[in-house]
Amino acid sequence: MTQESRGERIAKWLGRTGVASRRDAERMIEEGRVKLNNQPVTHPATFVTSSDLVQVDGNVVEQPQRTRLWRYHKPDGLVTTHKDPEGRPTVFASLPEGMPRVISVGRLDLNSEGLLLLTNDGELARRLELPTNGWLRRYRVRVFGVVDEARLAALAKGSVFDGVRYGPIEAGLDSRKGDNAWLTVSLREGKNREIRKVMMGLNLHVSRLIRTSYGPFQLGTLQRGELEEVPGKTLREQMPKAPEKTAPRKPASASTGTKTR
């Protein structure tokens, strides 16, 4: 049986439809929320073909479309989730009508704003989130307090605050007015609310946090709440390369022959 006739693993297939990332799709399968041809799916390695019927929470899932990516200027006050248990407004409810179902590449918290990448392909979201891409994420940060430039520079070597170790952060002072200052902060791999917590460790309160770039993708002149699709050619050119698989080395065999150089 060829790969084409066998189909595609359902968790990966669901990821490409934009219903969820592959990891979230696996969790949905464990929770019994996914059916294939009206039968519950019990394993994420189940295969699905173009002729199969897939349902999630009783809703039919359409076949995956071509991969698309959008730049979105997230305003503050929106949570990056499809459903919020506290009933707060969400990024996805704010999108224009006619948008396909999309998921975000990473997140921005409630009070953060700026560039958020959205895609209809969960596999693409997973690839763009990988720390191994080495993509720089840059922010403009307004802080309240006394900025010590030497301590900012020292963040590039990594830091520890409240027992939590943080990786290298590039941070520099852009401007200062009274007790308020604007910083440019860049990092390649971040923990939840990392910038806010690190600044707090420097006795600085973050009053505004704006992501201006994510890897090669820039916020640019997008206005708050504005959405713009990344051209397919640009997306293909900027896609990170998949990590190369190295074959395991074979153990060296003893040889009685003459060595050559």
UniProtKB/TrEMBL annotation:
Tree of life domain: Bacteria
Record-level Gene Ontology MF annotations: RNA binding; rRNA pseudouridine synthase activity
InterPro entries assigned to the protein according to its UniProt record, in alphabetical order: PsdUridine_s_RsuA/RluB/E/F_cat (IPR042092), PsdUridine_synth_cat_dom_sf (IPR020103), PsdUridine_synth_RsuA/RluA (IPR006145), PsdUridine_synth_RsuA/RluB/E/F (IPR000748), PsdUridine_synth_RsuA/RluB_CS (IPR018496), RsuA_PseudoU_synthase (IPR050343), S4_RNA-bd (IPR002942), S4_RNA-bd_sf (IPR036986)
Uppermost EC category: isomerase
Sequence ranges of Basic and acidic residues compositional bias: 228-247
Residue ranges constituting the RNA-binding S4 domain according to the UniProt record: 8-66
An example Gene Ontology biological process: enzyme-directed rRNA pseudouridine synthesis
Pfam families for the chain: PseudoU_synth_2, S4
Keyword RNA-binding: yes
Keywords assigned: Isomerase, RNA-binding
SUPFAM superfamilies: Alpha-L RNA-binding motif (SSF55174), Pseudouridine synthase (SSF55120)
EC number: 5.4.99.-
Region (Disordered): 228-261
Catalytic activity: a uridine in RNA = a pseudouridine in RNA
Keyword Membrane set for record: no
Record-stated family: Belongs to the pseudouridine synthase RsuA family.
Protein name: Pseudouridine synthase
Organism (species): Acetobacter persici
Organism classification: Bacteria, Pseudomonadati, Pseudomonadota, Alphaproteobacteria, Acetobacterales
